[in-house]
Amino acid sequence: MKRSELNQIMRDALDFIDELNFKLPPFVRFTYEDWQTKGKEYAEIGDNLMGWDITDFGSGEFHKSGLIMITMRNGSNNEKYPKTYGEKLMLCEDGQITPYHTHGRKLEDLVNRGGGLLIMKCFQTDADNNKLTEPLSISIDGKLTTIMPEERIVLLPGESVLVEPGVYHSFWAEEGKTLVGEVSDYEDYNDDTFYDDFELSMEMIEDEPILYPLFTEYPELK
Fold first, then answer.
1. What predicted TM-score, i.e. pTM, was given to this entire model?
2. How many whole angstroms separate alpha carbon 77 and alpha carbon 172?
3. What is the CA radius of gyration of the chain?
4. pLDDT band per the 50, 70, 90 thresholds, residue 221
5. Which domains does the chain have, with CATH numbers?
6. Is the pLDDT of residue 222 over 80?
7. Among 180, 216, 203, CA closest to 97
8. Distance from C-alpha of 138 to C-alpha of 135, rounded to nearest angstrom
């Protein structure tokens, strides 16, 4: 992906978030130049992987399979950062798929924060990672619901689903771009397992300066 494309994706995301009147922490709009003026009082943001993360899941086709993630709050459950929870905002384009993945530890609610529909499918696996065919129970806004593996779950704006550790899930938007909230245990990307193996990192072509750095790109704080 070209840096110019990534910068425009971020601008478009912020415009859409503003349209839905969702308020973000100030550091999300710190430019790369802004970060170069910040001191160690902002270390928690970098240490806990907060801020922007954008991936095409190795597809090379971001608008078909990709995701914008903004981690707004996160802890590490250690002495320095004892916070045990996190909160994330994600943006799905219409039909843009996040592939099947699961978390070994993290319990999360996925919330349709507005826009179109949030569609999700789930399944579980056995010890050999084979898909199970038995029904599974999930909680949709506190209502225990039995579904078949890979059955469509449709969430309207404001609705949410609880995703438990070990449940593989994939999601995307329909009927328009959609904001997705994640309220969860603290985020640790080593906790994530994708059903199909691929390289998460994107090759970046630096054709213009960084606008808003990804959480992997923060300059060293003075």
1. 0.95
2. 30
3. 18
4. confident
5. 56-194 (2.60.120.10)
6. no
7. 180
8. 10
